[in-house]
Amino acid sequence: MTQQKTILRALAGERQDVPPIWMMRQAGRYLPEYRATRAQAGDFLSLCYNSELATEVTLQPIRRYGFDAAILFADILLVPQALGADLWFVTGEGPRLSTITAQRDFDQLRDVADIHETLNPIYNTVRLLANELPSDVTLIGFAGAPWTVATYMIAGRGTPDQEPAHALMQENTPLFEALLARITAATIEYLSAQIEAGAEVVKIFDSWAGSLKGETFEKYALAPAREITAALKLRHPHIPIIGFPREAGEKYIGFARATGIDCVALDNSVDAKWAAEHIQVDGCVQGNLASRHMVTGGEELVTETRQIVQALSNGPHIFNLGHGITPDANPDNVQLMIDTVREGA
Q1: The one catalytic residue among 15, 35, 64, 75
Q2: Among the options 29, 35, 110, 226, which is catalytic?
Q3: Is 15 an active-site residue?
Q4: Catalytically annotated residue among 30, 65, 123, 152
């Protein structure tokens, strides 16, 4: 069955008449069943660390929509928490962390070898999903890329321009690079453990890669992705890796070749025809419908979906959004998107 899973076929470089489809944040607040399960858990972090409930919310969009892949329900900030950072979520505002802005802060972080004690419930969720998912559905594990995770650890929250991380990069480069190295090493161990638990694909989310320009993109987005990929491929040579350097623009070109990843996920600022010409030539691409269509729906959703499918139809393609689905999305629009992708199948 593994060879027949459509996601794995696309990641192996196979063009398919109907692209496989899944959706970033497909288990989330737009679904009433998710909201009910989260209320049962009590709060977001409790849901992440409750293996049974995290398994349930991961399965919900598979039951409802029949996606070709399920992505582990977790959060990119569990790694900094496992490294010793304080982590909490403020309702309506998002995550908060204790900050790493000086050497004394960094010195209080845990060793990479100690992260699994915190993260074991996540691995258990992967094991449960590997047993419970339908046999034709691919299980995707994930982690945040080192740069993106570092921006939260340095600022203590999400920021519009990642300025605190850029400032530390300039003012204390050794500390910044030591933090990035610690996150990189932890990410390798975290993703490797997910694979050992049953993940068939892993994805590296670099949500803030677009704020790195020129040489800093090469050093702090591309190089860590290459290091993580090389380490994982050495341990698990048959596991495909998806990279998502969001808003990389022209830097998307050659990213797969330079890092060794098997698929480049695209944000919706990239034209699909351009991507076919410049990125898909190197292998599988994933994307890239704008998330707003899940809110607005209608003929524009259908038209844009068809255009993306057509533009990327000559090579390996996994259909997805260009960013995660938002809480205000209409579940009916998700079904319309799926039906449009699969029409004629």
Answers
A1: 75
A2: 29
A3: no
A4: 152
The confidence band for 3, taking pLDDT boundaries of 50, 70 and 90, is low
150/292 Cα distance (integer angstroms): 28
Known catalytic residue at 25: yes
pLDDT above 50 for 278: yes
Catalytic entry in 25, 182, 246, 292: 25
46 contacts: CB under 8 Å, gap ≥ 6: none
For the question of residue 29 being annotated catalytic, the response is yes
Helix (H, G, I), strand (E, B) or coil at 313: coil
Task: Say whether 96 is catalytic.
Answer: no
Residue 70 main-chain phi, psi, to 5 deg = -115, 135
Token output for 28:
């989330």
Q: Which residues contact 167 (CB under 8 A, 6 or more apart)?
A: none
Token code pair at residue 291 = 């998330």
Q: One-letter amino acid identity for 254? A: G
- Annotated active-site residue 34? The verdict is no
Q: How large is the average pLDDT for residues 296-320?
A: 98
SS (H, E, C) 114-164: HCHHHHHHHHHHHHHHHHHCCCCCEEEEEEECHHHHHHHHHHCCCCCCCHH
* Whether 30 contacts 259, CB under 8 Å: no
Of 38, 96, 127, 226, the active-site residue reads 38
- Which pTM does this prediction carry? 0.97
